[in-house]
């Protein structure tokens, strides 16, 4: 046994020693920026394939947000950005003029963006049994006639237009357009918070055959897969466009590279300079991926075989021949994994069934959504009743009672005042209403579950992995499905927050009850208390300090979800943070972030202070009196 | 299988009858029970089946209005036994009859009524609810029974008064001393007017002096109330002091059950004999447990008239005289002091320096002869001869109770 182990270890050691020798001559690795949408991944794979086959380079993708990737290119930490959407990057022109990076070829410049509606909204779809909902809808201005077709569940009586991603330049333009056409009187402009959320909202509505109008762009798989119609606008003019008066221009999507990389790899840079595709070509490749389930690299090979002519325009004869030779070499083996076995799960099937489920139970989820929205609105309504000075006064009085220190009361009041000064008061109220609604729901659900867990070992065994999952599952995994079921806005935000924040109150309620002195519980039983009496009169009151810690933790975790929730369109402080991040406006993000922190600190101190206050009110004073009296 | 008769007629003075009660902990209880029946030992059974035998075929009667003291070392099963009486634990086999009724056959409702009306319990670590005040704890039993607030609080106040805690009823539990907490525990148990009081090592968590007080108070209460009390303890002196009947337990079995007198004279076996012999040795009270702070002292440098006034103020007829650093110099009696005052002598002149002294760690039993003889309190001094306190005849002799 031992000997066998030794042999294996020795073999492994030899292998480890042999490997570096094999990879002695390492080619340069091109770092492609991966802004995480599918078309850029396709272009990365395509350019990467050519880098490997014609230039002997290796390649890799480095993920990040647009703004961060741009910074990385400026600093030379990133080599190539295959899709630099020049209009969507705030400092692009400035940095280019200053020569901080190199602009290579134009990847494509025939793309469209603007407000889209599904074709069936205008023309109907007999096959799916959808009647035309807005037959006269052709232009953006026509939307005025149909606010009822696109109702906003969160704001009855108004329609909803899904805007662009907060922080993208086009978002400003779309908002101006919305005002320019006077749509603000009958529509709300809802920022979806993230591309994933916007895509989920549009595709879900499409799958359900529901009317929707929102910003989107091409080339994207979504536009390739579904039949959306771009609403017409006045012809583009450079002056009118920024004011929202005209259609959007096609954005120049260029290949951007760091100066250092261009200097180091001139031949490959020359290829990138000639690299040119088009929006239809890109959409074609993306549709192929969507249809066949091919990897991006497989799609790149397929694409080069289909469009062999492109090689001659992009590459020298010699280079093109090398690529063709590589293509002729047949299917490349799939990328080697370090793990020998692979289970091929048909995730597409799973996706479909989830979508079908969402569609099939639309009225059920619609009901939940309506309820949640009403609940949040109730909080919002209550908070709006409070004038700012009253809220300020309440916080100060509350913190005085919580801490018994006048300085702290003034300090906390000043912090809240600061949020007002930042101009974030209204956003704070919106955030607060979502957080409070989520916390109330979390407590209403979590407290009884916690009590149940304390009482039943079996329930505990079942719930434990569930709670672990809820706490550690990356939020985005259920955030986007939440959008499918509840569309964009406050409803999925509340649900995601509840899922994330309910765990501490469950855990600490159960823990608190289990930690109650066994003899005290025994005493209660011995005196003939029923289980319920013991629970209500002994266990819960004795566990109260721990339970209150759970409540406090739940509140804090709900606050931690504020920014994430904004990514699915819950407006509030989180949107400001998102805009700051997306635009790389550090100051703006920091101020909004500070407001979130202040709000969290205030709620933490207030609830903690109140929690500490609960046991033994006044008793202490009388007690010391008596002891003092005895000693005197 | 033979069905046991559920109930059985008991003699009128037998409140509780324990019939062949066993309690086993673990998964494989059936196998363990067979081994037990076959006469295998506790340790052997644990090794073979992983089952712990807490009670092994225990049978005895509890007589009405008697205190039955159950004594045993830890692990002997006495705490398990007491919890079988109110079914906080259920016997694995055997039965317990309360006034002729098999309690394990009680329905849920009957069991709750039984606990509420017939049997209450006092716990070793008090089992009090820290979120309620004294009154709230004492009235708890009546509260869960559904007695209206005014009525239950009136009753609880009576009980609080009975255990000598009046004025403390609105205090939080955490502010009380151990002795006071157990008084609350006893008041709570008595508040329900139970027929049987289960006391699970009620005084073990208290320090020896307080324990003595509480034992005395319990006897006093019993004189008034005449309850049936099942008193669990690991202290043989406590058992002999309180029990009308004493049961000695070992390894889940009852070794002997008898009156203290009979048990002392006719121990059933060596185990019982050693247990009883250990009685006096376990009397570990030492001087520091009964020591008092001296209320009344004078210094060698004080005037005689000052010493006289001091004695007068404290109502005593002698006073300890100390030098620098609290060094004990001797004792001054009132007669000598008055003589000195008349004759113009100083304190040092009339001092008796042959004072009985002892040390803090001396066992009480060792100073008994001195205490019995002496007419002045015994001075407790440390190694340097400084006064630490005094021991009066009363405090020494009362500790022997």
Task: Characterise this structure.
The complex is a heterodimer of chains A (632) and B (401). With 632 residues, chain A is mainly alpha-helical. Chain A is 63% helix and 8% strand. Chain A contains 28 helices and ten strands. Chain A has a three-stranded antiparallel beta sheet with strand order 3-10-4, sandwiched between helices. In chain A, strands 8-5-9 form a three-stranded antiparallel beta sheet. In chain A, helix 19 (425-455) packs antiparallel against helix 24 (531-560) and helix 21 (475-486) packs across helix 22. With 401 residues, chain B is α/β, with parallel strands linked by helices. In chain B, the strands form four sheets. In chain B, strands 6-7-8-3-9-10 form a six-stranded mixed beta sheet, with helices on both faces. In chain B, strands 2-1-4-5 form a four-stranded antiparallel beta sheet, sandwiched between helices. A three-stranded mixed beta sheet of chain B has the order 11-12-13. In chain B, helix 1 packs antiparallel against helix 2 (42-49) and helix 14 packs antiparallel against helix 15 (334-343). Chain A binds chain B through residues 517, 519-520, 522-530, 533, 537-538, 541-542, 544, 615-616, 619, 622-623, 626, and chain B through 83, 86, 88, 112-117, 119-121, 123-133, 140-141, 143-145, 170-172, 174-175, 188, 192, 198.
Mean pLDDT of chain B: 86
Strand order of the largest sheet of chain A: 3-10-4
N-to-C terminal Cα separation of chain B, in Å?
53 Å
Structural class of the secondary structure composition of chain A?
A: mainly alpha
Relevant CATH superfamily of the largest domain in chain A: MetI-like
The largest pleated sheet of chain A is described as: 3 strands, antiparallel
CATH topology of the largest domain in chain B: Rossmann fold
